[in-house]
Amino acid sequence: MIENFRLFFLQRVGLLSGFVLLLALNALPPFALAQNNNRLRLFRERQISSGYFNEVDVSSPFYLPLVGEPKAGRRYINLPPRSGTFRRWRTFLADSHYGIKILKLQKCQDCHPRQSRDYHTVRARITCFQCHGDEPIAGINHFYSSMNSTRRHSYVCAKCHEGANNSYASYVVHAPNPAAAATRGSFPMLFFAFWIMVAVAAGTFAVFLPHTLIWGYRDLMTSHMQGDGRRIKRFSLAQRLFHFLLMLSFLTQAATGLSRMYIETQWGRSLASIFGGYQWALTIHKWVGIFMLILFGVHLLYIFNKIEWRRLPRSLKSPDSLLPQWSDVRLALQHVGWFFGRSTPPQFDRWGYWEKFDYWAVFWGMAILGGTGLILAYSLYSTRFIPGWTLNVAFWIHRLEALLAIGHVFIIHFFIAHIRRHSFPMDRAMFEGTVSLDAARQEKPAWIARLEQNGELEAVLAPKPNRKLRFLYYLIGFAAVGVGLFLLIGGLVQSRHITW
Ligand code: HEC
Ligand code: HEC
Ligand code: HEC
Q1: Which of 91, 174, 310, 454 sits a CA distance of 20 to 30 A from 256?
Q2: Backbone CA torsion sign across 323, 333, 226, 451
């Protein structure tokens, strides 16, 4: 019993003295920490971090939150100005509307009209609050603002664009008007990309619109031989198939693209509803775009297969090749001379310069539209390699190049293939694969002469066409023209009602 008691007593004393010792140790100066008491350590302890972005998501110990209007002489805004001007101080406030009277019925749009006309607000119908948060709305550059560029990608963009990175967040949501002179200073890449594309488009139309109109007029005024109805082969089945698929996918891209661009109008909404709405129009646009790129790849393989590699480079210069040559320039000038009665009709061979232009324009269009289209479609992926603001640039290049392509195909290409005297009311060559021998003799004399000289003319004479098929060709051709003109005229008429 006593033994037990002594043991019990010793245990208690031992525990108690251990406890006292611990307390005493705590009261001693923290010598163990002293060795870390240097400046770096101090800084680390006082800084505030979310813990996610250790290197950037920290405030310096010298940071003083800006709460009110800075007094004159206090240098809060002593930050490097971006474009030579001082940045506004409100952008550093926790409540950017501090001291501003906001009337009850006022909307964000009333005071910030420029910020209300961008892709997110107008097209995707995202409200301001979804990005800027609720009142009090912090200034963009307030240190703890979710819009602060150190955390914008994760706190704002990633809410909807899952996986958005810092580069993606440098996309300029409220993009400036690319045409405005001020953009040259604030966003030069957008400004120059815009004006270069506008110059390319304006140049193309400035040359081809009058060219085609005068040509049409001149064509009408010249006498034509009456033919015997014989036709010769011009396009192979593979070429016609390529053209047909290109035509279908081009019309789809034009319709889906325009339906989204015009989604603010009833016209655009009806167009989009054909494809199942705004979202589906984009899905279809993306898949058909990929289909076009595959088609383009197959076409490249096809040409590589066609080229006579043994006879290079002579085979590329053959009149059957679509490669532009110096003689095309000469013939084009002579053609224009003929428009004005200043020279004899040019002796075109198999491909006229306008046909070569149409062919290579597709290459250019594929590169520009396909390239920017891929960047935009896979924006989260592409911004890993390129900065997010290039999406703004890519978007405008895509848009302007598409308008150029639509204008060129639906005005100039349609005119040449349907309204000229030889081809009125429709040039069946691309569907049927054949052209009238007499028309070809008049328009492409060098081609026919070459065929006759080589004794090949008999071989390319086409058998009698199938009437039912011809009806189908007319149907397809007119349907395509109908769709094209509907898009062209609708787009032109409605263009005043959309936010550019
Ligand atoms: C009564 C007019 C008015 C209304 C309504 C208004 N704002 Fe403002 N807002 C201002 C003014 C003025 C500033 C300061 C602009 C400056 O410094 O150039 C400002 C600043 C801002 C800023 C900070 C800008 C920066 O550079 O950091 C944001 C963000 C903002 N407003 C968003 C909104 C949102 C979202 C709404 C709608 C809920 C809204 N505002 C409604 C007048 C208004
Ligand atoms: C998709 C997200 C998003 C939406 C929606 C949005 N904003 Fe912004 N806003 C931003 C971003 C990002 C910035 C920062 C721009 C910068 O750093 O240049 C910004 C900047 C601003 C600015 C500062 C001035 C400027 O242009 O840089 C104002 C003012 C503003 N927004 C108001 C609005 C209003 C008003 C709306 C609603 C009509 C709105 N925002 C909708 C993302 C958005
Ligand atoms: C509330 C949801 C929301 C937030 C937040 C948001 N976005 Fe968007 N964003 C959208 C929607 C919806 C679209 C339109 C998609 C469409 O048209 O199919 C879009 C489209 C885009 C596009 C067009 C290209 C593409 O990928 O289709 C870009 C770029 C973009 N957002 C960038 C941003 C950036 C940068 C931020 C952060 C500042 C941001 N977004 C924040 C919803 C949001």
Answers
A1: 174
A2: negative
End-of-domain residue from the set 174, 194, 216: 174
Cα within 13 Å of Cα(175), Cβ side: 28
Average pLDDT of the residues in 178-198:
92
Q: Is residue 209 located within the same domain as residue 148?
A: no
Number of independent structural domains in the chain: 2
- With tokens 């101080």, the residue in question is 89
Cα–chain center distance at 62: 43
CB 170 within 8 A of CB 369: no
Per DSSP bridges, beta strands 231-233 and 434-436 are antiparallel
Query: Residue length, the chain?
Result: 500
Residues 395 and 324 grouped into a single domain: yes
Ligand 3 in reach of 395 Cβ (< 6 A): no
Query: For residue 215, what are the domain limits?
Result: 184-497
Query: Residues 399, 401, 196, CA angle at the centre, nearest 5°?
Result: 100
In testing the pocket of ligand 2, which one of 96, 174, 389 has its CB within 8 Å of the most ligand atoms?
A: 174
Which residues contact residue 310 at a Cβ distance below 8 angstroms, ignoring those fewer than 6 apart?
none
For CA atoms 402, 400, 177, 287, the dihedral sign is positive
Which protein residue's CA is at the shortest distance from atom 38 of ligand 2? Answer: 116
Higher-confidence residue of 211 and 420: namely 211
Q: Do 437 and 375 share a structural domain?
A: yes
Between the alpha carbon of residue 297 and those of residues 42, 46, 300, 372, the distances in Å are 61, 59, 5, 17
Cα(120) to centroid(ligand 3), Å: 6
Split at pLDDT 50, 70, 90, the class of 66 is low
